[in-house]
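Lest this sound abstract, we let one protein speak, letters for residues, whole numbers for local backbone shapes, and leave readers to judge:
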Amino acid sequence: EGTHRDPLCCPLMTRFYRVGQLYTISKHSHQESEKGEGVEVVKNEPHEDPVHGPGQFTEKRVHLSSKLPSWARAVTPRIFYITEKAWNYYPYTITGEPRCSFLPKFSIYIETKYEDNCGDSENIFHSDKILGDHEVSFLDIAFDEIPERYYRSLEDPRFFSSAKTGRGPLREGWRQHTRPIMCSYKLVSVKFEVWGLQTRVEQFVHKVIRDILLIGHRQAFAWVDEWCDMSLEEVRAFETQMQVATNQKLGSQHP
């Protein structure tokens, strides 16, 4: 089992980013559906938790076929997706219980917390999941490399400047001197109990999640002028609109 703790900063504020998170996930999923991939939403409904309070539950199908390396495609069906369940009690979220019918010993668990700091909170999760061996990775949305196929100059924080908020571009050392700043803390646990493939699969999944986190937060910042004036009600309406369009697109491609 591999566990990573991944702090990732953005030049935004936690209360401000709630809308940005929903907008970015919806728009990104719809864009990916144009390529035959993306996230198909099965359920999206209010959920009450006795500890975390009111939130939102989602169940999604994450289509991944073209993102798999050749060694993985050799042992997976041509049409491949993972069913993912998530509970969003912003600024705390849980993503877990992914199901894959032909990989019963595969699991991913992600906890997320958002705080207004530059990534210096220690053991923010107070979780027994990180008492053992784990790796801490600080992710930099401006200067960490992403796969070339995902690079868009308009989404590069080193060059982007927000017309509405005045934020950006981000220079070397931006985390130390940029205000406001928030950090998305991720606790990522990956388990794949198949002898001979365990290490390779767990390392691959951590790499994919790292890339998704970097790309998603780069887009959230680069798209800030699109969502910064939206209310929570407006972004929920946008989310519903995008989900319907994305599901229709994926449904026609994966009957």
